[in-house]
Amino acid sequence: xxxxxxxxxxxxxxxxxxxxxxxxxxxxxxxxxxxxxxxxxxxxxxxxxxxxxxxxxxxxxxxxxxxxxxxxxxxxxxxxxxxxxxxxxxxxxxxxxxxxxxxxxxxxxxxxxxxxxxxxxxxxxxxxxxxxxxxxxxxxxxxxxxxxxxxxxxxxxxxxxxxxxxxxxxxxxxxxxxxxxxxxxxxxxxxxxxxxxxxxxxxxxxxxxxxxxxxxxxxxxxxxxxxxxxxxxxxxxxxxxxxxxxxxxxxxxxxxxxxxxxxxxxxxxxxxxxxxxxxxxxxxxxxxxxxxxxxxxxxxxxxxxxxxxxxxxxxxxxxxxxxxxxxxxxxxxxxxxxxxxxxxxxxxxxxxxxxxxxxxxxxxxxxxxxxxxxxxxxxxxxxx
Length: 384
Hints:
By secondary structure, the protein is mainly alpha-helical.
């Protein structure tokens, strides 16, 4: 791996940090946003669902439409679009306008994230691919560690509009860094969307993608409503900020450990441990909420386990998909990103419909993901 490649992977991670902060920051100030726009907290949570659904639908479409663009131009343009969309979100006069701006932000995110992962995988040697992907995905996990708690604090101190304005500024700064640091990489030959989606005929790809949906739905059934959910285990607003920070610490640890472990022992074992840890953390929080037992330290540890299990998923899933269809690496990474956001949207929708705090439902979904993994782990890809 060249020095240029070593320098570029962290820059791409900065971009995914900007995208991740945008995707996750709303959870930190959801009650304040709901009150300001005159909607319920459950309704306000649908801003996350709309973002996720738009991302999932647009990711493969944008991969087709932008295939011929040089990668640097595409990534910089996506980040600038993200900045503009967040500025529009910050200025939204009502909830309907906010939803429209979240769709625009999702389009920019859908153009950036899968291409950042594919570029990182291209720049490094095959034996370092999972670690490179973990670093790029690490931008998303660091966003959960810093972006969401800081967004919550900004929402409390300056208001949610200023918090989204700060995300817009971050996106523009990272766009400048990517423009300066990323070497020229050409686009790919244009491929029709139908031909791109033919990769879904791979048996292994068909088995792997639903697991991403299930796992992310388990993670996000509670996360978008984490402020009211964590109140059920006795946390104040300040305690919730610290708990979300600990969730993020667990997410960073889980993501980086998964990248290293996947290269050594394979993705299936890593995922099995991750789903068990996530289910245990969520079930423990549910038990505390149900029994009324209070213990901030225990809540922090369980929240860290929840974060670690949630964010250990992406590196092994991407690695498994690339191994299943190595000639379609950019596409399967894009499809996995779509599946991630389908899961986020589904989990947020389930969380909005489920009686709070939803920890038991989320833990059950994590166990369903574990069962699906064990039943499909032996599936092998064959050329369609």
